[in-house]
User: Fold these one by one.
Assistant:
Number 1:
Amino acid sequence: MNPQVASEDNPYQAMQARLDLASERLGLEPNLISILRTCEREITISMPVVMDDGSVEVFEGFRVQHSTSRGPAKGGIRYALNVNRDEVRALAAWMTWKCAVVNVPFGGGKGGVVCDPFKMSKSELERVTRRYVTGIMDFIGPDRDVPAPDMGTDGQIMAWFMDTYSMHKHAYLPASVTGKPISLGGSLGRIEATGRGVMLCAREALKHLGMNPKECTTAIQGSGNVGMISALQLASTGIKVVAISDVHGGLYNEKGIDLAGLRKHMKVQRKLDGFDGGDRISNNELLELEVDILVPAATENVITSKNAAKLHARIIVEGANGPVTANADKILDDKGVFVVPDILANAGGVTVSYFEWVQDRMSFFWTQREVEERMERIMVDSFAATVDMAQRFGESNRIAAYMLGVDRVADTTRMRGIYA
């Protein structure tokens, strides 16, 4: 069975449809399903900010906490013009299932500010960030809700976030946020974590299917932190990266992309334009390339019922959150595509965020090798548990991952009971 939703571009409806199917397969009681379908808390704030030219612009900000049954809410903050409440709700819920799939003691949260960070000065970004933190101050903290970077945000923004929170609390509280610079309590290996997790899932998928990485090709949609590091990590295993893209389009070279050269170019130009290393293609064309592994690592809803049948990849490893719509699931299943779902494939990031939170709480820090070894063990074990669940219940990897995560959240919710 595969879930279908009326509004295919609504990620929150897609999440709920998959949750409902996983809950049905698990035989969960209706009252418990009602709890899991609903976000615990949703915060919307209006933030007047003085811009560099002296004008005042009012920004809208969100923070959604889907579940704190297994621990503090955990999830990134994205700065983008298309941020909306349902997107943040879906991302928060995905974080709940993601943390449960890799079995780290967090719940799910997510935040966003409606803005274009690429058109704002550094000082404007700082003022927006500090105003946002102040607006959600009463609902966050090391034991309540621990934010992290996401699209449009980075370590510098997390540093401002941590500083603002600490100033209000009159204490140095690095565990209030993750994804910070190393000098402020960040963890070694955090920047590479999501991309490394994508590589580990791709490696395990190839092992499971009996495919040789040195004979495989991959296309990466996205060249930001997740996309670029995924490409570099996959290439390190012998897989040939033949295509990569950004928001403006893609680059294709059947002999392989010069990733080192492209990375240097991107650091200066911040876009693919101007890099002479292959033929220009569109993002839609990249998705439909004849490659062994496709990694959608940009944004949600890029593989839909309209283009899923045109894909040729044998394996899809979801580096982004929600890149495949619920209505596309059945099409990919019928084609025999081996999908490593987002709540498993990109969970390397939250796993190392958990490590950062633990290190900050202890004031004792691990080496990068220790971080990577611990993360690899968790990702490999979680991949195996998901595939085992899929085989035992005759379900897709996606629904199996949901079943694994939902079952763990349901168990803690049931044991804690309902406070009245």
Note: Residues 126 and 337 are 44 Å apart (CA to CA).
Number 2:
Amino acid sequence: MTPDILTAVGRPFLLGLVLALVLVPVSRMIARRVGMVAHPRHDRWHRQSVPLLGGVGIALATFLAAVASGIADDIPVLLSTVMVIFVVGLVDDVLAVKPFTKLIAQIALASTLVYFDYRLGWLDSRLLDSLLTMLWVVGLTNAFNLLDNMDGLCGGTALVVSTTLIIGLLTGASQDVAGPEVAFLAALAGAVAGFLVYNFPPASVFMGDCGALFLGFSLAALTLNNDGVRGSRSDVLSAIAAPVFVVLIPIFDTTLVTVMRLLSGRSPAMGGRDHSSHRLVAIGLSERNAVFVLWLLAAIGGAIGLTVRSATQGFSLLVGGLFVILMAMFALYLGRVRVYEEAAETLEVPSVTPIPGEFMYKTRVFEVLLDFGLISASYYLATRLQFGDDEAYLRNAEVFYGSLPLVVAAQLVAFFAAGVYRGIWHYVTGRDAARIVAGVVLAMAAAQTVMVFLSYLSADLRMVFLYYTGIAATLVILSRASMRVLARLFR
């Protein structure tokens, strides 16, 4: 990294940091004087009154740092839209506007970005890609707003995401100078870092909707292409997966809350202390440790996003798929925590217990889908082990694609016949592990029999099946033992 790039990133970061360190306490003082204070409520986590409007300090620090860095004229559309969404959030903090009013404003601003050729570039159809871009921007904006549910969580996650995006833009740039988007991200990261000084648990100020909407919209906009055409990367999976992994935690938290509220017969739009952070506290973590866990997962997701961005398609598929599977198991573990009992909904830290076994039976469809992913990943990894480098694999790719449906079908049927789906994850035993091994062996015997009948079985494929047996049995057993492992880890 050249000195020019370091200066282009470091200067706006330091400006944003210093300005936020000054403006956030000023905003806090003003909020306290005008009565803009968040009081404890049964559906909110904090247990004491905390001033709002910390987001005013974040937005003003970012904007002033961007202007002082001389990039305002280079990104007028981005700066204009993010400041408008900030104003929308500020009005909501002051007047509590209706949700559909905020949604209309978000859609209008997302449409403005699309009009000026800010798009994801995931689809060849400009119409479909534009609609998907608007959905992405609106969804991420609200996801960050929902993530603002515990001291330091939203701000820290935004700092991780912005840092990851800076690295991605710098490593993906062909020029020796940083563009205006990088400078804006640096100013944003500095402002958020300054805000975290006052928002780190226990927080003395909240960012409010003006800060959460500003951060979510800004980071969503900065994951878009600004050339109006489909991304130039040949690996479509990496082009899609990279931004998804970078902002995975807001997506993860929003999805978990929405699904669990629907399964519990509650409206997804209602507030509550049922987010991923709250569930981590419910199983015994302190608030700080719960926030640290989600920061760490955000950093891992960002690292994987950078990895799949530059890796080969096959490696992207394997790494990304396995991480998604791990996060799905983590979601299932958190979903087992009871957070909707009336007795638990007090102003104290809730004393909750895992949901009994009946809930696990409702997840049987998820269990089958998880096995589908593990089977596919295991068979792909076994094929790569057998055929070695990319060139050898590509020569034998038809073997993999031709036999994969047979392996998946045989394995799922064998698991059913072996009784794998009769157990409960939380109580997995050695007998359950034996059933998994028996199911894998049975599936491979059946698959090889069919291959012989079709005259399709070769020495290479026999070795693939041998590798698969060990890999699949190990991954599926580990997935079933994950509940106990996570319980012990957090305990």
Note: Residues 234-355 form one domain.
Number 3:
Amino acid sequence: MGLTEEVVRFVSNTRYRDIPEDVRRLARGFILDGLGVILAGSTERASRILHRYIGDMGGKPEATVIGPGFMAPAAKAALANGVSGHAMDYDDTQLSTSREAVYGLLTHPTVPVLSAVLAVGEQKGISGKEMLLGYIVGVEVECRIADAINPRHYQSGFHSTATIGGLGAAMAVGKLLNLREEALARTLGIAASMASGLRENFGTMTKPLHAGRAAENGVTAAQLARRGFTAATNILEAKRGFYNAMAGGCDETKISGRLGRPYFMQDPGISIKPYPSGSLSHPAQDLILDLVKQHDLRAADIEAIEVGTNSNVPNALIYPMPKTSLEGKFSIPFCMAIGVLERKAGIAQFTDRKVQDPKVVDLMKRVKLYVDDELEALGYDQVRSRIRIRLKNGKTIEGRADVARGHPLKPMSWKELGEKFRDCARLVLTNKKAEQAIQLVSELEGMKTIQPLIRTVRGREGKAAR
């Protein structure tokens, strides 16, 4: 059995009753987090531009664009919500099953799949159980495909959220549409040829466009296959197919026999972001905040901050002196400087005004990011970080962090997930609506239709992005 056949057979055969309760519990948390970052990201300028673009296009009103609350064709609603979900770079990140993979190839699994499921699910009037089923199988396929790909894919410039997110979204939508195996295989074939996204665009509006296009591609591919559109049915393993063309190969053992055994959400897991920035910065952000508070450090006390990591971190966090908030999300100097100056790293800290603040700029000049030989030798599966702070009085303060809050080894509780959701949702929803949304997600399996959830998060209180 080829890899493509194995994937589509898993998608076709998996039933809601087959999914362990632990996986469903984890999925509810990821869905709540995903809805929160979509709400918050809908207020970003990139999202507002896209909302106007989609609004001007018109088309059949099939699904809700969260934030402004208007209706659009399902594929375009998926596009808009996918962009919003990644606009703040606050969405979750898959982990890795090997030391060689770059922190799970930095695939952000929830937003492309969830955005596609919300759009088609609203169009079809699916139940909460169907939503969970589609989301879970889509994320499982997405994460396994990403985990198996040659790391060259990411290292040479592809953004796996863009390239592989669409494959997960396609399988999720195919499940909701009850496509048979042959049609699911064609769906993968179509989605694989639509896959694109380059990391040179990190720090620009085009990075969140990657997640949006992945969601849109998933919807489009499944809808075309449902209508009989043809494509290769061996796209993953073919000589001229996805893995060979995009990465020069894959490790088939990371997919074959592994789908749902256990679910990727269980092992190695998916990490929820504690900060709205590139996930490779998060252990260092956790650490700087701890050190600043523990030693009551002030910017005036600091001579220099040295941050040691593995070699893949500078390859992704590419801005030594950022000029915008989008660039700041991929800048260790900014993350360190804002942590010292404000002792926080939330939505309010990642703004153009903060990045351009003279006090922040001055402190960023004192931050150095370097490759630490010891951490490099440990591999790339974790974003291990070491910080050394040299004070003007001659004293040195040091620390090391291997994972950040939100990692499966340092997980967020449902209460903490709720706190993050409230912080995100307050940009769009009333407090009452935010609490209703949290409650509805917690009760998702009992919902005969997801319409009440859609109505609650659509953002029609007049606070949505304009």
Note: The chain has two domains: 3-273+410-457, 279-401.
